[in-house]
Amino acid sequence: MLDRLARAAPYAVLLGVAAGLYAVAGRFEFSAPAGRIGPDAWPKLVLGLLAVVCLYEIVRSLSAGREISGLLQSLLEQAADGPAGEAPAGDAAEAGSWRRLATGIGVTILYVALIGVLGFTVATVLYLAAFMRAGNYRRYPVIATASVAGTAVLVFVFMRVVYVSLPAGIGPFATFSFAVLSLIGVK
Question: What is the pTM of this model?
């Protein structure tokens, strides 16, 4: 029991800190424009999510002798297995991991370099697809769907919720970006 309490203690402390900071964020003095959220919303959202994670980890740590396996943990375990359900050989898996890491870093650097030219929308669709492919995911219809859907969610959140201006790109990429923005009602 002491071991479980020791595992839960850091999350309990972090939950207390999150609660205290949430109270501080509630005392922000501001005047938000009509129809927009104020500067207190984002810290509260992040602190609320932190509290949810802490509560989950406290429950998991205190669970009576059984391990609560999360969805992410089970997905990671499945991904570690090879296509036939067998774990890859140590050296081969390690070499592939380094190659995938280097490719992911390269794709990210390329994304940052090209986002001003291609615009956020086009660059992000290509980046998400390339990153998934670099991670050795091979279901191309899923990659295409996830890339477009992920980009659509990001554009919506940045433009309609957070009110952040995104790079439109140049030439035909800018035209495409403005067409996408008009679809979600951004002028």
Answer: 0.57
Whether residue 87 is contained in a domain is answered as no
Q: Which of 23, 15, 16 is nearest to 52 (CA)?
A: 15
Q: How many CA atoms lie within 13 A of 125 on its CB side?
A: 14
| C-alpha–C-alpha distance, residues 104 and 133, integer Å | 9
Whole-angstrom distance, CA of residue 137 vs CA of residue 147:
13
Asked if residue 147 and residue 109 are part of one domain, the reply reads yes
Cβ pair 157, 124 in contact under 8 A: no
- pLDDT tens by residue, 33-74: 677 776 677 788 889 999 999 999 888 888 865 555 555 556
As for how many domains the chain has, the answer is: 2
